[in-house]
Amino acid sequence: MRLWYCSALLWAVSTALPVKKQYSVAPELLPGLSEIKDKAVIPEMYAGHMPLAPFDGQDPEISYFFWKFARPDKDLNTLIIWLNGGPGCSSMDGALVENGPFRVNEEYKLRLNEGSWHTKANMLYVDQPVNTGFSIPTGKEQIFDDDLSLSTQHFLQFLESYFETFPDDQTKDLIIAGESYSGQYIPFIADAIQQRNEAITDESKRYNLRGLLIGNGWMDPDAQSLAYLPFAISKNIVDQQNPYFSTLLKAHESCQNSINNRDLQKNPPFSYQECEDILQLLLAATKNTSSDTPADQVCLNVYSYNLRDSYPACGMGWPQDVLRVPGFFARPGVLEALNVDPDKVPQWTECNMDVYSHLKNNRSVPSIHKLPGLLDSGLEVILYNGEMDLLCNDKGVLDMIHNLHWGGQSGFSNSAAKYGWTFADLENNINHTAGHITSDRNLTFISVHNASHMVPNDKPLISRGVLDIYLRDTVFEESNGEGVLVTTSSKDADSTAGSKNLGVLGASNETSSSGEKQDSESSADSENGKEDENKDNGKDNDKDNDKDDADQRRRRRQGTFKVFAITVVSVSLVVSLGLYIYVRKHSKAKRAGYIDPNRRQNPQGKKVSWADDLERTDNLDTGHGQPSSAQSASQKKNSYTQVPNTELDESFELENF
Q1: CA 217, CA 224: separation in Å to the nearest integer?
Q2: Which segments show compositional bias classed as Low complexity (predicted)?
Q3: Number of domains observed in the structure of the chain
Q4: Which of 355, 407, 495, 560 qualifies as a FRET site for 502, CA 20 to 30 Å off?
């Protein structure tokens, strides 16, 4: 008996999950970080292989690789799990090429990414499904997921193990984020989490899922495939004079016919080959085969149609940052620093085509069918799109939303809130047009101006504004009768905002009243010499000593002085005039308040708390971003210019043919 007990104890110890400390990453072991003078900007890091929890008593013999980044100076209450797509593409793209704290330089060393999302939330990057990146099977058999239902099950097993090892993260507000094919992963995972939560009676064991952020997502193969040709025509990529136009038209018709004629009783395919062919035919139709065309300028870049590439790669080697990541992971000691055994993992590659070829999804329907239930449950969903993307373009996503039925209606209603979006570069005192926003019934669509398929890569600071919009760390302004949301280059979230305050961006009358009440309270605070207080959640504003927070507090004080001056006007004209002169002399900021002047009715009745206003410059400069598609076509050397620019109706549909 004693021998059996000792054997069981040894088995339990050997199979126990590693503790949090074992996943700690020492920054000085990663190339480049020792050269950073200000060590305070280096995030707290954890990384390594997390064994998946058993399912139905069976150990799946799979370990997922993760890399977590957190601010060392703040315990942020939001955890964002980031997933790249493919399928089969590593989430280290997100960590080292997009919105993570670091980028890889030409010497395969890490450098800081000024637009990192970890300054606003804890970031957890996970390689999945199995055999993606450094996530591996731990047994003798090779394992591949063949269906989204299986990859979802495996990810829930990862979460169970992860939260057991990092229990503090389980209490945080959870956001699932990602891009491209993760538009399939994310709704499936969110739906599974909600089912899990409903089955658990102990609330402390539930996951605090609050929202989804999906960038250039592939969610509806039908609608998004049918958008390729109309989108290409609207952007003058092709027109009726193109010799391949009739072939493209037939492919479009064939896709539409397959969708129209499918038999729902016979388990229709996840997607149709006829629809997938359209993009390849479009790339062939837009090749520049003239003799003086450089090899790397022959084909459209499907991820940013204003760029060119070699054929048939058409963007597969883009962006350049991706090409440096294998060299970083191959440097001696890097994998060991990340708690990875080099002998147990393959050489890092961005995407594993075996994962892609195995994920057939014969048992699952596309994630668009999951979205209505998630929205009706109250979950906030933000879909953001770089407008230069061809692969998952704006039109396809908007068509998908138009066909979507949630909240008792289909698509965005007439009362949907619409805003412009401005990015305020506080360091250089320049404002940039960032895009536009439409929001209705807890679904928000954001089009990011002059951005590609990988928005955080080419617009790092602006991309962090997507997170600011979710966190309500924005300023409302009005310009030419249009509501504009302003995000800034500040790395710190405004403490008056928080992901617990969810809902659509269009504020209801109730929200406006709440905002006016808060303005009144701010005025009272200014008379007593106090700092503004967040009345919605009862917490004081965080007090940091860095320059950005000092600017924010200065602006709040200036706003309260102005409110005080306006109050005094009603009592004494002479006193108010004096105060008015004083305020005008010492303050340029204008307090926006916590109201939406459009006062649109919010069907969900949820409240929105806006951040304080900030100083805008009159110099609205968009010239520092990428050029528009028309400009780039003429300015980029050896770019494709042979397609005639015949103007066609932008609402181009099949019947127009």
Answers
A1: 10
A2: 628-637
A3: 1
A4: 560
Q: How far is Cα 78 from Cα 168, in angstroms, rounded to an integer? A: 11
Copy the structure tokens of residue 611.
């951040």
Q: Tokens 């010497």 sit at which residue?
A: 107
**Token pair for 494:** 């405004």
CATH code, domain with 401: 3.40.50.1820
Q: Which of 394, 453, 549, 609 is catalytic?
A: 453
Query: Regarding predicted confidence, which is higher, 622 or 246?
Result: 246
Distance (Å, whole) CA 267 – CA 362:
8
Q: Which residues contact 204 (CB under 8 A, 6 or more apart)?
A: none
What are 283-292's pLDDT values in tens digits?
Answer: 999 999 888 9
Q: Which long-range contacts (CB under 8 A, 24 or more apart) does 539-545 make?
A: 539/495, 540/495, 541/494, 541/495, 541/496, 542/74, 542/492, 542/495, 544/492
Q: Please give the sequence-ordered ranges of beta strands (E in DSSP) within 368-493, or none if there are none.
A: 380-386, 405-406, 409-410, 417-425, 430-440, 443-448, 475-479, 482-488
Is the dihedral angle over the CA atoms 585, 493, 623, 216 positive or is it negative?
negative
Rg of the Cα atoms in the chain: 26
| Given 91, 116, 151, 180, the catalytic residue | 180
Query: Is 486 domain-assigned?
Result: no
Active site residue 263: no
Residue 477 to residue 468: CA distance in whole angstroms: 15
All residues at 6 or more sequence positions from 102 whose CB lies less than 8 Å from its CB, including other chains: 32, 95, 96, 110, 111, 112, 113, 116
Residue 453 is a catalytic residue = yes
What are the phi and psi torsion angles at 211 (to 5°)? -170, 170
Residue 268 located in a structural domain = no
- CA 338/CA 125 separation, integer angstroms: 13
Say which of 389, 440, 473, 532 is annotated catalytic. 389
Mean pLDDT within 168-189? 97
375 within some domain? yes
Among 189-203, 366-380, 613-627, the range scoring the smallest mean pLDDT is 613-627
Within-domain flag for 132: yes
DSSP string, 285-304: HT----TTS-GGGSEE-TTS
389 is catalytic: yes
Q: What CA–CA distances, in Å, run from 210 to 81, 158, 194, 377, 498?
A: 12, 19, 10, 11, 11
Q: Which domain holds residue 133?
A: 32-219+361-420+438-463
